[in-house]
Each structure stands twice: as structure tokens, then as C-alpha cells.
Amino acid sequence: MEHDDFGRRQVWLSPRDRAYEEKLYQFLTYHYGQRMEVHRSLELAEGFVPDEGSLLLTDRDEEEPARFGETVRLTPGETGGGINVYQSGHEIARQLLRLRGGADSSKEAASAEEQPDLCRTRESVFGSAGAGGVFTVCSPVGGCGVSSFAMTLAQCLQENCEGRVLFLAPEPSFPWQLFFRSSAPYNLSDLLYSLLTEEGTGAAWEAELDRVLSRQESGVWFIRPLTSLRDLELLSNRELALLFGKLRKRFAWIVCDPGRCGGSLSEKILELSDRIYLLKRQNPVDEKKTENYLSSLELVPEEGNALRGRMKVMTVGRGRKGQFLPEEKAIFLRKDALLKPDPGTAYYKKVRELAIGDADA
Fold first, then answer.
1. Please, what is the angle between helix 202-212 and helix 188-197, to 10°?
2. Contact at 8 Å (CB) between 165 and 154?
3. What is the pTM of this model?
4. How many whole angstroms separate alpha carbon 329 and alpha carbon 233?
5. How much is the CA Rg of the chain, to the nearest whole Å?
6. How far apart, in Å, do the first and last CA atoms of the chain sit?
7. Cα(118)–Cα(49) distance, rounded to whole angstroms?
8. How would you class 240 by CB atoms within 10 Å of its CB: exposed for 0-12, middle for 13-18, buried for 19 or more?
9. Which of 64, 157, 195, 286 has the highest count of CB atoms within 10 angstroms of its CB?
10. 186-239 pLDDT, tens per residue?
């Protein structure tokens, strides 16, 4: 049975961990269903017969390889010549697609090997991006006004610094309709899918980026959040770095609001950030949680010290020492049914001071 360009080749999943099998099945079907026909081990038990050229992905010893055209082992690491189970779903799919055989497969594999490891250093990601930076706002606790700070920061950069500004809030729950207008039917998930299937090259990805972007009256650019958080959490560090590296070619400034720090998504974004603003309130609970988070960075000294070097800890309210943000009840104005940062507040003036100072640093 011929499978031209891997067109709908059957892939059978049969790992010992059934929860992992179900998650991988849903991911591959959702993102790569047009390029592979994915089946679960349950269908084998129900009497389904695999195609002659089908591929089995398993970590079991009791499967019958003769029933399949090819068998690939799932391995708990990089050794063994199989597919590492501890990597992103997109990377697993990419390796499966390379198994089509023939000269085309060799060319694709060689191309992949030649790609630089974009996450080894931040300089390798942003080396050709020019002036500007990625500014990320986060907090180890809730209720600190992370989104308010990030929105105000984006506006201040737009009004006081050269270059285009992109506001990026990947969380699906982010209430973007309160602050932005977007007629684009596409969102960050669509952009990721295009990036990963096109390998980030060619005009197709650039066209997809144009389709998801919307420019606000304030001048700030915006991309609607993810459909599902898992779309971004399943990215490898290299893939996320590739995304940010390509966005930096279009925007001088990227302001990120990844939500509460400590999760896998926010930590990946922090590693790619030029400046990090860590917000907290001045009370015993917040102080302790912030202290615990900062202490956790010391578990990996080299990476932790690098993050601390780019981080400013900001106290919301009248902090007695260090940086602080004035706490005001009304820091936004409502204009044309949308909330806009109020430039007349002490809060705005403080963020503007930070934005200009860090942009010039």
C-alpha cells in the first residue's frame, strides 16, 4: 500500500499508560488528522485490522509487530533509537511524519538536524531582532493587577518608544473583549499550528500572522488568546523560542501576560524575556509566597540567577522599600465601550517611568 507524502497513513498508539495514549490520540487527531489516521489500542481489541503499511507506536513487548508495516518504540529518554515520550506532541508528530521513508524523509530529517537550538541562549533567538525587547508581567499570587500593569505598560511603550508593540496574553480565560477589538476569526492557536506545520518558513506563516493580528486605535497590536492552553503548553522550548524569534522580526516590543508564574507556560516565557516585572502585595501571605517562588529559582542556580538579573519585584501599594506601584481604584477610562489606561493617574505615570527607563537600558 503506497502512502504518497504520508497521506493519511495509519498510526496505531499502544503505550502502557492509557491516560497518555488518550491525550496523545486527541492531540494528534486535532492537529494532524489531515496527515495521519490515528487509532487507539482499544480498536485492536475490538477486532479492527491495521492497514498493511500502518505504523505502531508502543512501549509494550507483547504487541505483534507482524500485524503492522512498521513498529516504533516509545522510550523514556533520548536513547534507544525510538521516540522520546517526554517531549511535546508536536515534536512527536514531526518525528512520525519523517518516518514516511525514501529520499524525501532523509532530506527532511537532515533539515531538522541543521536547525539551531534556539533555546540554548536568548542571544540565538533575538540576535537579529534589533532594538526592543520582550517584557513579561507575572506574579506568584493572584489579585495583584498583572493584566492592568501589562496593558498600561504596552500603552506606555507605544506612546514613548520607537517601534511596534504587540500585547500577548495566551491564557484562554483572558477577558480580551474588555480591552481590545478584533474582527480576526483566528487566534494564537491557529498561528501556532501554521508555524509548526510550515516549520516557520515561507509566505504561508507570514500570511497567517497577518490574519491573526489586529491593530487597535491606540496603536498597540493584539492577537486573540489560545483556544486551549494545552496548545501552547505542549510546545517544546525550541518551538516557543522559534515563535518569539519570528514575532521579534515584526515587533520591537512584546508585552506578555502569561498569568501566574510557576506553571510550565509562564516559566518558558520568562526564560525568553528581556525584562520581568514580578508583582506582589505587601502582606504576610504574599510576601511568603513571593519568597518561596524566588527561592525555587535557586534550585537551578545558573538559570535562576539569569532570571533574577532581569527581574524587578514590584509591590502594589505604598511599598516601604524597593519598587512600588500606587494603588488606585480607577486606573482605566471607558472609551467606545473599551477600557483604556488613564494617563492622568499616578499609576500610569509610574509605569511610564519604568517603561522609558527599561526601554533605554
1. 180
2. yes
3. 0.67
4. 34
5. 23
6. 61
7. 42
8. buried
9. 157
10. 888 888 877 776 555 567 778 888 889 999 999 999 999 988 777 766 667 777
